[in-house]
Design goal:
heterodimer, A: about 200 residues, mainly beta, 1 helix, elongated, B: about 170 residues, mainly alpha, 5 helices
């Protein structure tokens, strides 16, 4: 190897070491993007904290337990609102395509702040009272969530295809936007399809 | 006798005064309750915005989020009670919410300043260390190169030409 070639090796080696030594400083001014996919989780679990044994055939005055969970993977702390709503088959549900929430009023609401990477789970018990059946129709007068009663007066018609009077308890996830100073629908919802079987 | 009656009236007035106050406070209208909830929401939301700012600066805001969560829980409770027509409880929950987040804005500001100071300190240390390391590398490279060159030339000078028969 000639002296000139050795000199090149020394220069290149020195430059590499300089780059390594100055990398932390570059890191300060050119922060590497940590952006992965940013999203929020919303889930509903059965009474055993598993995705099974969901209430399906329900009766009046019996209490049903599910767990609702929210996970924050948005890259910073988030302020969530979890709305519990109740509908019959003919009322509008949230639209995942257009990202619009159901226009039905929120009955029960949780609000929670979550750090990035944090998950939160809460038990939700619900029951029905004032249930009656007549002329292929069922009526639910009161829907209770966590012992708080809401007058709903929902009528469900007999579903010939599925053999039942079907209602839906659904849960929407909303997120607080500091720019607009209000909660916006986060296009996440989960639901439980319930067949009212008796009083 | 007249003096006694006045004294009795004054006494009765003072005894009944607290009940009167309670009576007044129990009479909360829906609009009043809604207004109090709105005010409480504004307080919680502004506290959250400050906490977000502190977090962006790199502050650990987990303690503040616990307080905010307490405020948020009370807000949702207040709204549900409002919807159910329990205006007194709604106002009570709204007040609790405001109490829960008391001091959060100031703490967030302090954490933000602290995080800013820590960032500056860390940046200074990083830049200084990098600079010193680069200087040491350049000097080391030059010194090693000179030593290497010297040894290389000495080795070259000691070499003798060899005769190779064709």
């Amino acid at each position: 190897m000639k002296l000139r070639e050795y000199r090149a090796v020394f220069i290149v080696g020195g430059l590499i070491l300089i780059l390594v030594a100055s990398a932390p400083t570059f890191g300060l001014f050119l922060p590497l993007s940590r952006e992965g996919e940013r999203f929020s989780e919303l889930c509903v679990l059965g009474p055993g904290h598993m995705a099974e044994d969901y209430p399906c055939d329900v009766r009046a005055d019996l209490s049903y337990l599910v767990y609702v969970g929210v996970g924050n993977h948005m890259g910073s702390s988030m302020y969530y609102s979890v709305s519990v709503k109740f509908r019959n088959q003919s009322e509008p549900s949230p639209n995942a395509t257009t990202g619009t929430p159901s226009p039905l009023p929120s009955l029960y609401e949780y609000r929670v702040f979550l750090e990035d990477g944090e998950t939160w789970e809460v038990p939700v018990t619900f029951s029905f009272s004032g249930v009656s059946f007549s002329d292929n129709r069922s009526l639910v007068e009161v829907f209770k969530v966590n012992e708080l009663a809401f007058g709903v007066d929902k009528v469900a018609l007999w579903d010939v295809e599925s053999d039942g009077y079907y209602y839906q308890v659904f849960i929407e996830l909303w997120i607080y936007k500091a720019e607009s100073d209000r909660f916006q629908y986060h296009n996440r919802f989960v639901y439980l399809l319930l067949n009212m079987t008796g009083v | 006798m007249r003096g006694m009656r006045t004294l009795l009236a004054v006494l009765i007035f003072f005894v009944l005064l607290p009940f009167g106050k309670i009576g007044v406070s129990l009479a909360v209208s829906e609009s009043e309750a809604a207004l109090r909830i709105d005010e409480a929401e504004t307080v919680v939301n502004s506290a959250y915005v400050k906490v977000l700012e502190a977090e962006e600066k790199g502050a650990d805001v987990s303690v503040l989020l616990v307080k905010l969560n307490s405020g948020a829980r009370n807000i949702s409770e207040a709204q549900m009670r409002l919807r159910n027509g329990d205006f007194v409880s709604a106002v009570h929950c709204a007040d609790l919410s405001v109490q829960s987040v008391e001091g959060v804005i100031e703490e967030a500001e302090q954490l933000k300043v602290l995080a800013g100071d820590q960032y500056r300190e860390k940046s200074f240390l990083t830049v200084t260390t990098s600079f010193l390391a680069v200087v040491v590398i350049i000097l080391g490279d030059v010194v090693f190169w000179q030593l290497f060159k010297k040894r290389y030339l000495q080795k070259l000078l000691k070499m003798r030409p060899e005769e190779v028969e064709a």
